[in-house]
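Study this chain:
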Amino acid sequence: MAVSRFEEWLAGTDLGVTVRKFPEGTRTAADAARAVGCDVGQIVKSLVFVAGGRPVVALVSGANRLDEGRLGAVAGAPVAKADATMAREATGYAIGGVPPFGHATGVPVFMDRDLFGYHSVWAAAGRPDSVFEIQPERLRELSNATVVDLK
């Protein structure tokens, strides 16, 4: 399998993150949980939105539905889902494979507090068939996320 741009970026760091590929796919939270064999709440959905004309990323537990009003309140403006072009321009990745960090631009990241209810979580690794496991505090640190209630 081809190496993703995220994996290439990781190779130039000492972050200690290991990407795992699942041919059956990890595009949705349910797909990823089935592939990994974990609770759907342990899956990190990386959702790209636009707030006041600028992109933001919300890291949401796979078990939760994002409250766009709450995201807008912490982002400083009402939000709308980013289209595929905006998501790729802001993060460098296509929807369905957006990792929580290593983005093409300095996009602000907001992290769902519920992710801290798990010892480890699984996040997208730049492709719709790849994820990596990480502890929530390390995820917050590497993504420079603001932790908030997003559901």
User: Anything to note?
Assistant: The chain is about 25% helix and 25% strand. The beta strands are 19-21, 43-51, 54-61, 79-81, 109-112, 121-124, 130-134, 146-148. The longest helix spans residues 29-36.
